[in-house]
Structure formats: structure tokens, C-alpha cells
Write a structure and sequence with these properties.
Blueprint (H helix, E strand, L loop, with lengths): L2 H13 L7 E4 L3 H15 L5 E4 L2 H10 L12 E6 L3 E2 L5 E2 L6 H9 L1 E9 L12 E5 L4 H14 L6 E3 L14 E5 L7 H9 L4 E4 L1 E2 L5 E6 L2 E6 L3
Parallel strand pairs: 1-2, 1-3, 3-6, 6-12
Antiparallel strand pairs: 4-5, 5-11, 7-9, 7-10, 8-9, 12-13
Helix pairs in contact: 1-2, 2-3
This protein binds ribose-5-phosphate.
Ribose-5-phosphate (R5P) binds next to helix 2 and helix 4.
Pathway: Carbohydrate degradation; pentose phosphate pathway; D-ribose 5-phosphate from D-ribulose 5-phosphate (non-oxidative stage): step 1/1
GO molecular function, one term: ribose-5-phosphate isomerase activity
Keywords: Isomerase
């Protein structure tokens, strides 16, 4: 199976958990887009849901395919969020934000009763940190915030390049108007400690560690899709 087929497989398995009338958080990224395609097809057969998109990109894609959308202002409580991840560990702690949507993704996941992660086996790790951790920061005071992030990480024994995410020749700007620092710490043995440490840095808007948010992952590999349930 090629990479796209695996994403479709995971998305299809997650779609089985979507019920008529659900208020859905709809993730961002290439795997989430496969979910939107399948969701739209199921809706053409009669399924009725309302979705809250986790990014402008997902919103545009949903509109293109006719998936009805609402906002957290109108619908502040959701039944289920289905989203991709950049990596996940055996406890279903995640790193997200490779596509820059981590802030809205986290707000939407936190507003949902359940979160299902859809991924292929390449995203599975024993310890988070192989994928550089995206940290969303306010553009004001960028250098000072970057320095404080490095110091916060160093206090936990973490080090490595922290780089400003760029598009061609300008900083990448998130849907919220912020920048992203990608922190290559290599290994994050205590994600909870890093999470609270990063949250204490003024200028850090959010980070891509999703802890205790996902209840389930459907992970597609050569032998089909397997389900992982979180213990929390
Ligand atoms: O900001 C982007 C999101 O966190 C994505 O869910 C994540 O990057 C995974 O994307 P993909 O399914 O394209 O690998």
C-alpha cells in the first residue's frame, strides 16, 4: 500500500465512529483531508453532521466538498474530533502542528468529548521528539521568546536547534497571525514537564504537544488498520 492508501485506510476506519447528527471537529493535513473526502461521500448517501474546521485550509476544503460548517461560537461543544498527527507514542501523546494548525486543532480537540487520531505506522514512536516540536509564538519579541524557550528546554535537559519556520523568504504565519518555532529536541522523555514549562514562557501562544486529548488512534499499516486506545 502506498502512503496515500494508508491514510485513506485510517480515515475509513475513523469514519465508522461517526454517527448521524454528530457535531464534528475536523482536523488539518493530508490524512484529515482523506477523512473529509470520505465524509463528504458518506454525506451524499444521507449522513448528516455539522463540522468545525481546525484551519482555514480545512474550511476551504470542506466548503469545496459541501461539508456543512459551524463555529465554536455557535457550537462550543463537539461530540468527536478526527485529526491527523505528526507522531504519537504508546500513550497517545501526540506531536502536532507540522501544517501549522496546532492552536485551532488543540482548541477544537479540547472542546470535543472524544478525539480520534488517524495516522499511518510511520507516525508511531516510543518517545516523542523525533518530529521537531512546533511552538506557536507571538511575533512580538520573537528573539526574546526564542531565548526563553531554549532556556526552559535546557532546564529540563533538552537541547537542539530551534528554528523559525519560513515559507519562501518570509516567516510562516498561522491562521491566528502568529509565527512557529520548530524545536528539534530529539527526544522528549517528559512531555508533561515540557508542556507546562513552555506554557510559562510569555510569548508562547501554544505548542504541539497534545497530552491526554486523544482517546483512540486508528493506525494504518501494511496489514490493515489497528486501533489503539489511550489508558487515560
Ligand atoms: O498542523 C497540522 C496538523 O497537526 C496535522 O494533523 C499534522 O501535521 C499531520 O498531517 P499529515 O496528515 O499531513 O501528516
Amino acid at each position: 500500500m502506498d502512503a496515500r492508501a494508508l491514510k485513506i485506510e485510517a480515515a475509513r476506519a475513523a469514519l465508522a465512529h461517526v454517527e448521524d447528527g454528530m457535531r464534528l471537529g475536523i482536523g488539518t493535513g493530508s490524512t484529515a483531508e482523506e477523512f473529509v473526502r470520505l465524509l463528504a461521500a458518506r454525506m451524499r448517501e444521507g449522513l448528516s453532521i455539522i463540522g468545525v474546521p481546525t484551519s482555514e485550509r480545512t474550511a476551504a476544503f470542506c466548503r469545496e466538498l459541501g461539508v456543512p460548517l459551524t463555529t465554536l461560537e455557535e457550537t462550543p461543544e463537539l461530540d468527536l474530533t478526527v485529526d491527523g498527527a505528526d507522531e504519537f507514542d504508546p500513550e497517545l501523546s501526540l506531536v502536532k502542528g507540522g501544517g501549522g494548525a496546532l492552536l485551532r486543532e488543540k482548541i477544537v480537540a479540547a472542546a470535543s468529548r472524544r478525539m480520534i487520531v488517524i495516522a499511518d505506522e510511520s507516525k508511531a514512536v516510543q518517545t516523542l521528539g523525533r518530529f521537531p516540536l512546533p511552538i506557536e509564538v507571538n511575533p512580538f519579541g520573537l528573539k526574546a521568546t526564542e531565548l526563553a524557550v531554549r532556556r526552559a528546554a535546557e532546564a529540563l535537559g533538552l537541547a537542539g536547534p530551534v528554528t523559525l519556520r519560513m515559507t519562501k523568504d518570509a516567516p510562516f504565519v498561522t491562521d491566528g497571525g502568529h509565527f512557529i518555532l520548530d524545536a528539534s529536541f530529539g527526544r522528549i522523555p517528559d512531555p508533561r514537564a515540557l508542556s507546562s514549562s513552555l506554557h510559562s514562557v510569555p510569548g508562547v501562544v501554544e505548542h504541539g504537544l497534545f497530552l491526554g486529548l486523544a482517546q483512540m488512534a486508528v493506525v494504518a499499516g501494511a496489514g490493515g488498520a489497528r486501533t489503539i486506545l489511550a489508558q487515560h
